[in-house]
Amino acid sequence: MSNTTSGTHEGFTAEERAAMKNRAQELKTGTRRSSRADKAAEAARDVLAKIAEMQDSDRIMAERVHAVITANAPVLAPKLWYGMPAYALDGKVVCFFQSAEKFKARYATLGFSDQARLDEGTMWAAGFALTEVTAEVEAQIAALVKQAVR
Questions:
Q1: Structure confidence by residue, pLDDT tens digits, 40-92
Q2: What angle do CA 58, 28, 128 make, to 5 degrees?
Q3: Could you give the CA distance from residue 76 to residue 114 in angstroms, rounded to a whole number?
Q4: Rounded to whole angstroms, what are the CA distances from 102 to 11, 105, 117?
Q5: How far apart are CA 88 and CA 113, in angstroms?
Q6: For residue 46, what pLDDT is reported?
Q7: For the chain, what is the radius of gyration of the CA atoms?
Q8: Can you give the pLDDT at residue 1?
Q9: Contacts of 141 (CB under 8 A, 6+ apart)
Q10: Rounded (to 5) percent helix, strand, coil in the chain
């Protein structure tokens, strides 16, 4: 390896390494032999368990986001993605919740992958900062996930 001019290596943070380890474990778990229904039920339990582990404000928001997504886009299957709750269509992640605490950010994030059909012109939002999930925010999330899977 070559040294940088400063002599320090700026690699992945501890949080990023942990997220990658989580993803590797998720992939390993997904290859276990079981029925599709069993895998889906286990994935849903894993998401709820991960949400339950979150700190209060992140947990409250994640619970509400989960409820809104599952009610308004039942075709999306809950699953863990890099250790965070995500919702997939045909195995491909469409949207995800990222807690503020996990990456020491000042806000949680509701993100959408390129699988989401949110296209609007030549530029559109693919991530939304969340500091609180109000009734108005729930309505916006519901509209976004419905559009994402249309």
A1: 999 999 999 999 999 999 999 999 999 999 999 999 999 999 999 999 999 99
A2: 30
A3: 15
A4: 18, 8, 27
A5: 10
A6: 96
A7: 17
A8: 47
A9: 65, 68, 69, 72, 110, 133
A10: 45, 20, 40
> Rounded distance, CA 100 to CA 144, Å?
21
Residue 102 tokens read as 């996990």
Length of the chain: 150
How far apart (Å, rounded) are the C-alpha atoms in residues 32 and 104? 33
In three-state secondary structure terms, 1 is coil
Q: What is the DSSP letter of 82?
A: T
Phi, psi of 105 (to 5 degrees): -95, 165
Distance separating alpha carbons of residues 126 and 148, to the nearest angstrom:
10
Helices (H), 31-130: 36-53, 56-72
CA distance 73 to 7: 50
φ, ψ for residue 19 (rounded to 5)? -65, -40
CA distance 54 to 62: 9
Report whether pLDDT(103) > 70. Answer: yes
